[in-house]
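dumping this here before i forget
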Amino acid sequence: MIVGWKKRYSDILKEFTYDEKKDRESAIILNSILKKSDINEKIMNLVKGKTVLVIGSGPSLSSAIPKLKKYKKSIKIAADSSIKLLVENGIIPHIVVTDLDGDENTLGRIARTKSIFVVHAHGDNMEKLEFVKKIKNCIGTTQSIPFDKIHNFGGFTDGDRGVFLASHYNAKKIILFGMDFGDQIGKFSKTKKSERKIKLMKLNRGKSLLEWLSTITKSELFTTSKPIKGFRKISYRELDVIIT
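structure:
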């Protein structure tokens, strides 16, 4: 577990009034479903020393699609709420970071492909974890204490967990697409009006975690979306120079 995460997890529990016991219970269920595998090694081979594109579902995702299609061979880590649009445009991410609240049909379509699913267990998704049995390549994560087949790479929302994942596996460069932390919620996240306030709180927490990560990671950090402290803001025109 990343040094300093315990304090940040405690802050999350307080801000969102989450139940740590339920997080642990969910992680235990996920652990019982997962099989022993070499997925960690596969992720390491994909990510270590590479330029990794991390994709969220913010308002700028639509404009990012042509660029993402251009860089077919680049390693892509996607938050599950971005999956539907990506797959519709022929973009199959190498890694999907999900707590299983994305488009189930699309997730099901790629569950048996080479895509690696990083499934997050928390107190509110226990009933969805059975979906993991459909996935060919899968590892589990928790916000709480890691154990057995359950990891904790850090991060809170699917998007920022993808960045923490890339950092953990020593990506050389991490470039964000469609990660617009701000007061606008991307239409691809399918957020209900009643959930808008809590969604914005989650985005704000995710952004603050990325700012913290920028002070301790060895990866070079870039964003094509809204500015984030510790990340170099770049234009699409600069991508050819940065993506190697």
